[in-house]
Structures are given as C-alpha cells and as structure tokens.
Backbone:
C-alpha cells in the first residue's frame, strides 16, 4: 500500500490499483508451425546445396574438370549402349571405390538422387514385366549407375568450375549464361525468402489464423526483390562491358593429367569391347 502526503501535511493511505495486483504472465496459445519449419528447412538445404559449403570434398579433387566431364560422358554412352550388365557392374564398382573415400553425409547426398531416379524408373518399367519382359530391371539399373556418377561429379565440382569446363568443350555461351544466372538467383532469392520466413516465425506470437496472407506477402516481396536483383545485375553487366561471351580460361597444359585421363578412357573402351564380346 502506498502512503501519499496530504496537501495539509497529513499522510493518507492510497489504494493500489487492481491492475498492479494481477500477474503479467502471458501464455500464448499453441499454434502449428510444421509447415513453416519444413519450408525453412527445405530452403536452407537448397541454399546449402548450391552454396560454397557444399564443396567440402573439392580439396581432395586434383583432376581436370573438363577431362572429368568428357570421361563421364564417355562412361554414360558406354553404359547406355551395353547389352549386358557386366560392364555397368564394372562402372558401379569403380564408383563405389570413389564413394568409399567420402564420409556418410556426403555419400547420402550423392546416393539419394540415384535412388530416387531408380525407384521412379522402376515404376515406369514395371508394367512391361506382364508383357513378358524378363530384363525389365536392366534399364533402372543403368539409370541408377548413370545418375550416381553424375551426382558424384556434381558434388565434388564447384559450379564455377563446371561453367569453365562447359565453355572449354565449346558449349554455347547463352547456355552458360542461363546456368550462371539460375544458380545466382537460386541463392539470392533463397536467402531472401529464408530471412522473411524467419522474421514471420519470430513475430508470430500465439495462434495466427492468417498465415496464408503472410505467405502471399512474402511471395510478393520476393518478386519485387527479384526485379531489383535483375536491374542490379543488368547495370553491373553494363559497367563491366559484358557482352555475353564467356572465355575459356587458358592454363598451362599438364600433359601427365591428360595422359592419365586418356589411358582411363582407353581402358574403359577396351573393357567395354571385351565384355560385350566385340574383341577377344
């Protein structure tokens, strides 16, 4: 109870307001945030996949990126044209040897797209079993090996190195430009959406029945930011006199590396011809 001094000098007791006596503890009602959490996690995984942190294994890679892509292209052609499963099994054994040098998280990231492609192709090919096709598993098996090899190369290779390698094998510049811009805006817009979603989650206290309106506002804000990014990119290209032409980086030729890749390609082709019965 507060004691207040009266105007004439006497002290008179003053009643305490009721609102002071009540507890200020606020317990907001529980709300479901599963969709918001899953969306944030999915966007974070996408940014991590395309961002620099995905190349933890690239320091172990000392080969030539262009030669890697060419060797991968040759391997895919040989796998697709193989009539038996012996040569694809040989390629699978080689891929497993490379995977054995990685940790569990990296192996899961490489195998996951291959397993998804395998299961999807099995669903498509399975009806042919009822038509008397006893080799219906051959196509999904080849798809699994092919996607596994592509996933491994893409996992250990930085995206800017892939762009450089594509130009070295004379891929059109417009394709490389679309590739670079796509990767850039996936990362930029991904960060924008991620920050907006985190802000929405932090500011949502209690039960929020207007989440869909907030999501529409987030998408609208992201669209406006994409326009700003596009203008900034255009002005940056103008300032740097970019004409849309990508020049392949000229490096001193390491003949030992090229010889090693050449021997590997010859061995692959020789094993293919021998296992398929063309020679021997």
Residues:
């Amino acid at each position: 109870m507060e004691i207040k001094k009266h105007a004439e000098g006497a002290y008179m007791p003053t009643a305490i307001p009721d609102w002071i006596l009540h507890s200020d503890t606020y317990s907001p009602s529980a709300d479901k945030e599963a969709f918001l959490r899953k969306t944030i996690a999915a966007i974070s995984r996408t940014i991590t996949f395309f961002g620099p942190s995905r190349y933890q294994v690239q320091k172990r890679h000392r080969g030539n990126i262009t030669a890697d892509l060419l060797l991968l292209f040759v391997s895919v052609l040989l796998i697709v044209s193989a009539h038996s499963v012996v040569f694809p099994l040989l390629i699978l054994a080689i891929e497993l040897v490379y995977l054995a040098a990685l940790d569990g998280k990296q192996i899961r990231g490489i195998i996951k797209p291959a397993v998804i492609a395998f299961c999807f192709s099995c669903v498509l090919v399975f009806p042919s079993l009822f038509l008397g096709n006893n080799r219906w598993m051959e196509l999904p098996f080849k798809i699994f090996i092919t996607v596994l090899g592509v996933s491994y190369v893409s996992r250990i290779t930085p995206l800017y190195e892939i762009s450089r390698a594509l130009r070295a094998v004379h891929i059109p510049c417009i394709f490389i430009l679309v590739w670079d811009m796509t990767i850039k805006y996936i990362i930029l817009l991904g960060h924008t959406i991620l920050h907006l979603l985190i802000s929405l989650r932090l500011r949502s206290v209690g039960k929020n029945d207007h989440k869909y309106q907030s999501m529409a506002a987030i998408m609208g804000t992201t669209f406006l930011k994409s326009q700003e990014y596009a203008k900034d990119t255009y002005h940056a290209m103008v300032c740097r006199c970019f004409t849309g032409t990508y020049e392949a980086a000229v490096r001193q030729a390491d003949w030992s590396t090229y010889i090693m890749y050449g021997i590997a390609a010859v061995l692959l082709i020789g094993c293919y011809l021998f296992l398929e019965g063309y020679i021997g």
User: Anything to note?
Assistant: Residues 82-157 form one domain. The two ends are 106 Å apart (CA to CA).
